[in-house]
Amino acid sequence: MHPILAQRSRLFLYLAVWVAFGALLAAVIAFRGDATLPWALAFAIPLGLLLGMQSLSCWYLVKILPAGEAPLSRLAGTWAGAGSLMLAIWVSVSLGWAWVLRTWGGFTGVSSMLTPLMLFAGIVGLAVAVLAHYMVAAFERSRDAEHRALELRVLAREAELKFLRGQLDPHFLFNALNSVAALIGSDAQAARRMCFLVADFFRRSVRLGTQESIALAEELALAETFLAIEEIRFGARLRKRIDIEDGIGNFAVPPLVLQPLVENAVHHGIAHLLEGGEVAIAARRRGALLELSVDNPCDPERPASQGTGVGLGNVRARIQSLFENRARVAVEAAPEHFRVQILLPAVVQESSACAS
Questions:
Q1: C-alpha distances in Å from residue 343, one per residue of 286, 290, 319
Q2: Which of 25, 64, 156, 171 is the S-S candidate for 44 at Cβ 3.0 to 4.6 Å?
Q3: Does residue 157 belong to any structural domain of this protein?
C-alpha cells in the first residue's frame, strides 16, 4: 500500500500541503493580474488537490525504478513519458475548470496567459512530488535494511547460544563418565548411584536448557545435583556451602550458568588438594544487579589443566551474547584461591513460581 494512504493522518497532511500549493498558485495568478483573487482561489485549490492525487501514482514508478539501480536512460524516458501524460491531463482539466468557472460561476476578466503558468506550476509540482517520493522510498529502504540487520543479529545470537549450550552437555558427560569409570572397579554401588544422579541431572538440564532463562532456585538445584554426584567420588574431601539471600530465588538467570563454574571448582580446585576443600556458592542482590559467585581453594603447585577450557569460556560467551554490556564475568585467581563472580540484571523470572 502507498505509505501516505496507509494512515489517515498522513493523507490529511498530504492534502493540506497540496491545498497550500493551490493557495500559493492562486496568489500568483491574482498578483499577475490574470484573475481576481476569489476566482483564483476557486480555480487553483481544486486543481492543487487534483495534482496531489495524480502525484500519488509516482510512488509506484519510484518502486519500479529505484534511484541508483535503474539505468539513467530508462529513468529519464519513463519519467518524461509519465510526466508528460500527467501534465497533459492536469492542464486539460485546468482549461475545462476555467471554462466552467467563467461560464457557470459568473467570473470574468480571466487572462488568456493562464495556460503557460499552469504548465509551469504543474512541472514544478510534479518534480517536487517525484523527489519527495524518492526520499520516502530511500527512508523505507534504510528502515528495512536496519530491520533485516536486526533480525540477522538476533538469529546469529540464537545460533551462537544454541551452540554454546550444546557444548555443555558433552563436556559434563565426558567428565561424569570418567568419574563413573573410576568408581566401577572400587565401589560399584557408588558408581550405580552416580549413574542415577547423572541421569537425573541430564533430565533436568535438558528440560531447562531449552529455555532462555530460568529461576535462580532451579539453577541452584542443578548445581546441588552436580555436587551430589561429585560427593560420591570425593567423599569427605568435598564440602559445599550455599549462601543465598532471602527473596531472590525467583530471579532470572541463564540455564546452566553455575554448573560449569562449580564443575571447574571441583575438577581444577578440590581434586588437586589432598585434604579437599569447600566449594562456596553465593547469590545476593546488589541494587539493580544480581551477583552470583563460586569460590574454591586450589593448590598453587597443581599441574597445568589438560582440559578444553569449555566451562568458564562458555559462561563468558553466553553472558556477553545475552546481555552485552549489561552484565559481566569477573575472575579472581590467587595462588591458593579461585573465585568467579557474575553480575546480571536483577529481573524476576515471570514464568516461574520458584522462590528462595
A1: 9, 6, 9
A2: 25
A3: no
Q: Which of 269, 260, 241 is nearest to 329 (CA)?
A: 260
Residues 189, 144 within the same domain: no
Q: Report the relative pairing of strands 238-244 and 289-297 from DSSP bridges.
A: unpaired
- Could you tell me the CATH number of the domain that includes residue 220? 3.30.565.10
Per-residue pLDDT of the chain (356 residues; tens, 9 = 90+): 778 888 888 889 999 999 999 999 999 988 888 778 888 899 999 999 999 999 998 888 888 888 777 788 888 888 899 999 999 999 999 988 888 887 776 555 555 667 888 899 999 999 999 998 888 888 888 888 888 887 777 667 666 656 655 655 566 677 677 777 877 877 788 888 888 888 888 787 777 666 778 899 999 998 998 898 888 878 899 999 999 999 999 999 988 889 889 988 988 899 889 898 999 999 999 999 999 999 999 988 876 655 445 578 878 888 887 888 899 999 998 889 999 999 999 999 876 444 44
Domain boundary among 98, 132, 149: 149
Comparing CA positions, the residue from 332, 331, 306 lying closest to residue 316 is 331
Total number of domains constituting the chain: 2
Q: Are residues 340 and 194 in the same domain?
A: yes
What strand order describes the sheet that includes 328-334?
238-244, 277-286, 289-297, 337-345, 328-334
